[in-house]
Design brief:
alpha/beta, Rossmann fold, 3-stranded antiparallel β-sheet, globular
Length: about 325
């Protein structure tokens, strides 16, 4: 079944790119709106040295939607291991070159969409140079997505709220246009505080989602994220998003109901991660869809979303 529904996916990280791979089987009316707050790894280096937005999450989404993805995947994900390019990713350098040639990050990404024959479009949520900040329950603050992730894992302090610095950057106009025209708007899956919520802090995004006539969907995570969402249930994830998006905007929640075997559960417990429990009340104002969309990666032995199954559910909404 091929659909002409206009689908907008908002997020970042591997969760977003995984979902896009499934959705492109069913439609080419896709827009990925991607967070640009990353400041770690190769993206962070390019950000500091070339004064450009971080390309990493954008690159992953471009590859996910590229029509020639099987050929390009290994090439664009190649990471140099020596010399001055040690640790740098070829795909990131490709986007850096396009940014330099065409004079802006957004123009570079636009050209990358063309070169890679992207099925749909991948766009940054904002073109402004932003950083992600977090305030913890003890009142302490930290700046930088990389620093937040590190602190979460090592210190295990609970995040009270996140913010962008500078505050309220303007949304990229193409992101607003796509949201307002969307039939379906998907939030997640992905890291709650570092992939999903940062997009909602961009000025205009939340309002556009609220005003859109499209169905707003949240795809729940399979497991909690150590240090970031310890002990979080599905309702706690939704409640946190609604702090920034507003109540009664999310209309549908897709929840995983996979039962883990003892070996996999124990593997995750070693990392202090547990299954995200679905505790949403069916009497609430959500269409709750429970399904088994978790599959085990043979390479990593970690669970990931079944992209095809997830796409089938979203397309049928």
């Amino acid at each position: 079944m091929y659909s002409k529904k206009r689908i907008v996916c908002i997020g970042g990280g591997t969760g977003l790119s995984t979902m896009l791979r499934g959705l492109k089987i069913y439609t080419d009316e896709l827009t990925a709106i991607v967070t640009v707050a990353d400041n770690g790894g190769g993206s962070g280096i390019l950000r500091r040295e070339m004064n450009m937005l971080p390309p990493g999450d954008i690159r992953n989404c471009l590859l996910a939607l590229a029509r020639t993805e099987p050929i390009l995947h290994d090439i664009f994900n190649y990471r140099f291991s020596e010399g001055s390019l040690d640790g740098q990713n070829l795909g990131n350098l490709f986007l850096a070159a396009l940014t330099d040639i065409y004079g802006s990050f957004e123009k570079g990404v636009e050209k990358a969409n063309e070169v890679l024959a992207v099925q749909g479009q991948v766009i940054p949520v904002t073109t402004e140079n932003i950083q992600l900040g977090a305030t913890y329950e003890d009142g302490s603050k930290i700046l930088g997505e990389h620093e937040i992730v590190y602190t979460n894992k090592v210190v295990r302090k609970k995040i009270s709220e996140v913010e962008l610095v500078p505050p309220k950057p303007e949304a990229y106009f193409k992101a607003i246009e796509a949201i307002l025209k969307a039939d379906i708007i998907v939030l997640g899956p992905g890291s709650l505080f570092t992939s999903i919520i940062p997009n909602l802090l961009v000025n205009g995004i939340g309002k556009a989602v609220e005003q859109s006539l499209g169905t707003v969907v949240y795809v729940g995570n399979i497991m909690t994220q150590p240090g970031e969402t310890d002990e979080f249930t599905l309702k706690m994830h939704v409640d946190e998003i609604e702090k920034y998006l507003g109540k009664n905007v999310i209309e549908c929640v897709i929840a995983n109901n996979t039962k883990l075997d003892k070996e996999i559960e124990g593997h995750y417990l070693e990392d202090d991660a547990i299954v995200v429990k679905n505790d949403l009340d069916i009497g609430e104002n959500y269409n709750i869809i429970e399904t088994n969309f978790a599959i085990l990666s043979k390479c990593t032995r970690y669970l990931r979303h079944d992209a095809k199954r997830l796409a089938e559910i979203i397309i049928e909404l």
